[in-house]
Amino acid sequence: MINWGRVEELKEEVGAEAFGEVIELFLEEVDEATNRIAETKDRSTLPDDLHFLKGAAMNLGFAEFAAICAEYERTAKTDGNDAPDIGLLVTCYAESKSIFMDQISGLNAA
């Protein structure tokens, strides 16, 4: 579910000192976008929101969540009538975030 190699790369890219702040900012932005998708019936911005989420998820190492976002983004761009399973998207993000937060303290200490 989490690509820990990517998480380590991100830590190296931003530096150990800034790592916690970067993670906090990413998660805050992903939380906002995920909540917006879950709470709105307006799907006009869905492809853009999914594209953003896909990129953020890839940066954070949320591999499964990124794959779902990529699939839904393709579907939203090619067939607006085929609504994505928003519940699955939200659940996958919540599970990914939970696993990530449980394990990240060890990476922050290293």
TrEMBL record:
Alphabetized UniProt keyword annotations: Phosphoprotein, Two-component regulatory system
InterPro entries reported in the protein's UniProt record: HPT_dom_sf, Sig_transdc_His_kin_Hpt_dom
GO BP annotations listed: phosphorelay signal transduction system
Residue numbers carrying Phosphohistidine: 51
Gene3D superfamilies: HPT domain (1.20.120.160)
Protein name: Hpt domain-containing protein
Source species taxonomy: Bacteria, Pseudomonadati, Pseudomonadota, Alphaproteobacteria, Rhodobacterales
Matching SUPFAM superfamilies: Histidine-containing phosphotransfer domain, HPT domain
Boundaries of every HPt domain copy: 11-107
UniProt cross-references to Pfam families, sorted A to Z: Hpt
GO molecular function: protein kinase activity
